[in-house]
Amino acid sequence: MVVTYTILGRQVGAHVLALTTLGTTFAGVYLAMPAKTTEKESGPPINAGSKDEEKFIQDFLKNANGGGEKAKA
Predict the structure, then answer these.
(1) CB atoms within 10 A of CB 11
(2) Which pLDDT belongs to residue 7?
(3) In whole angstroms, how large is the CA radius of gyration of the chain?
(4) Which of 33, 43, 44, 62 has a CB 3.0–4.6 Å from the CB of 67, allowing a cystine?
(5) C-alpha span between 12 and 16 (Å, rounded)
(6) How does pLDDT run along the chain (73 residues), one tens digit per residue?
(7) CA–CA gap between residue 60 and residue 73 (Å, rounded)
(8) Of all helices (H) and strands (E), which one includes residue 9?
(9) Start-to-end CA span in the chain (Å)
């Protein structure tokens, strides 16, 4: 037989209390964890003298990281 407890006038089994406690604990931990955010990788600021130089640096970094088209031979 199962050990029962009287809670709010109802008979509740010990196994039900154990599962409820575990479920509540895991749900609380899951809800308390911060949401995963995808942060854009940002490097150091580009200190370019002109817009053309800034564009050149960004294109170079894109190609160097494999983000752009392959270099034309």
Answers:
(1) 10
(2) 95
(3) 29
(4) 62
(5) 7
(6) 899 999 999 999 999 999 999 999 999 999 999 887 776 667 778 888 899 999 998 899 889 887 656 555 5
(7) 16
(8) none
(9) 80
